[in-house]
Design a protein that fits this description.
51% helix; mainly alpha; 437 residues; three-stranded antiparallel β-sheet
């Protein structure tokens, strides 16, 4: 396969000749053809694991994402982003994503409420270390509130996130055409991710994602909060005839990622395995869940998750890219008459996703949309429109609240200015009926 440097010149020349609108076709064709080639190579390989046809993150990064990285920057991404960062002031808001079990600090003297927290780095370089504070571990899903003026009565920013003392010429550091390319790439990556992650098993694949690989299907074991590790291990050993060590690895991956492939083969073979795995596992009204997925779709879904993680990463490089992503997320697709934006589509499909996919979507929005004041307000409006639907889905969802999109409510409902925006949005949408309440 071609290296990023090999394809860069051809892609840039194509855009020069065909215009900016050609970026969408370049990206979509690249995603579809590269994933198909990677899967074909792995499926036909003599060393292919009969229980796993997954594409590894390093392979997707090297063959899919690196080319997009170079294309956005029109050259070496490390040099491009280093140049932009040198001209851009440090962000006034930390926004560091907090992992499960990570220590955080709450200031009893200055915090607006108990949900306002600082990461260790910000706390150690803030005035709050000399106040009355509480240290505890986070359940994950939030981020550091350093720099948020509505979170603190005093000591809003640590030493790291002080406002810039001089004007910086950021625009001159952004390569020519980068904004156009980045917008097209982000839009197509998001559209691709929504298409493959929201796929219904009863629907055919989009035309451009189909290929003559109909004999390859994967039996995928999906996580639930009912069955124990031991029950899953016992069932895997009995049905797949694998060792206890292999069964433990499968159970661990299901718990960590939300699902794992347990068998690859013909559709009938996978259906037989599904029947055997589910037999005798009824517990609290639930059997072990096994989905039969075309191997090609599984590969595209794995690619989509890597793309979402990459979009989150490049958004941390500069504010220009974060703002572009917000524009893409709030754009109204012609085929979406329900929510009016790709953001709404992703929020609505949260309950259908597994843990790894949910985390990728939520971290992307938290990093890009909840750190910019205007974007956060626009996110909150979309969130409140769908709030009833999201809560209804959560009531029927057996996943932990921490990995549900409803957990993001703490980021909007605890901010007074955001609450005002949501109230006005609700009032505008109800035709004044809320005044009667």
């Amino acid at each position: 396969m071609s290296t990023p440097g090999d394809v860069l010149s051809a892609w840039l020349e194509h855009v020069r000749q065909e215009g900016p609108q050609s970026v969408k076709n370049i990206v979509r064709d690249h995603l579809v053809s590269t994933v198909q080639s990677l899967l074909r190579e792995k499926s036909l390989s003599d060393c292919c694991d009969p229980h796993d046809v997954s594409l590894t993150a390093p392979a997707l990064r090297h063959h899919v994402i690196d080319s997009l990285d170079w294309f956005v920057c029109a050259g070496d991404p490390s040099e491009c982003f280093a140049r932009i960062r040198s001209c851009e002031a440090p962000p006034n808001l930390c926004g560091r994503s907090l992992k499960h079990g990570e220590p955080v600090y709450t200031c009893r003297d200055c915090g607006a409420d108990g949900t306002c927290v600082l990461c260790s780095e910000c706390f150690q370089r803030s005035a709050h270390r000399k106040h009355r504070y509480k240290m505890h571990t986070t359940g994950g899903g939030g981020f550091c509130d350093c720099g948020d003026e509505e979170a603190w009565k005093d000591g809003v920013r640590c030493e790291i996130h002080q406002p810039a003392v001089r004007e910086l010429d950021v625009e001159s550091s952004v390569p020519s055409g980068m904004s156009v390319r980045a917008y097209g790439v982000a839009e197509q990556c998001m559209r691709y991710a929504v298409d493959v992650l929201s796929w219904n098993m009863n629907d055919p694949l989009p035309l451009d994602l189909r290929e003559d690989m109909d004999d390859y299907y994967v039996a995928v074991l999906v996580n639930d909060e009912v069955h124990s590790f031991d029950e899953v291990i016992h069932k895997m050993c009995g049905v797949l005839k694998c060792s206890s060590v292999q069964a433990l690895q499968l159970a661990t991956e299901v718990d960590r990622l939300g699902r794992t492939s347990v068998l690859i083969g013909s559709k009938s073979k996978c259906e037989e395995a599904k029947t055997e795995i589910k037999r005798g596992t009824l517990k609290k009204g639930r059997e072990l869940r096994v989905d039969i997925i075309p191997a090609l779709l599984l590969a595209h879904q794995e690619c989509a998750i890597q793309l979402l993680q990459w979009l989150r990463e490049i958004g941390t490089q500069c504010a220009v890219l974060r703002n572009l992503f917000c524009e893409v997320a709030l754009k109204s697709p012609a085929n979406n008459a329900v929510s009016g934006s790709m953001l709404g589509e992703v929020l609505s499909m949260d309950a259908l996703l597994w843990k790894d996919a949910r985390n990728a979507c939520q971290q992307l929005f938290m990093r890009h949309m909840l750190l910019e004041s205007t974007c956060k307000k626009l996110f909150s409006i979309e969130f409140i429109k769908l709030y009833h639907e999201l809560q209804d889905q959560f009531l029927h969802d057996d996943h932990d609240h921490a990995i549900s999109v409803t957990s993001m409510s703490v980021q909007v409902f605890t901010t007074p200015s955001i609450v005002c925006v949501m109230v006005m949005a609700v009032c505008a949408g109800c035709g004044g009926r809320c005044r009667l309440l």
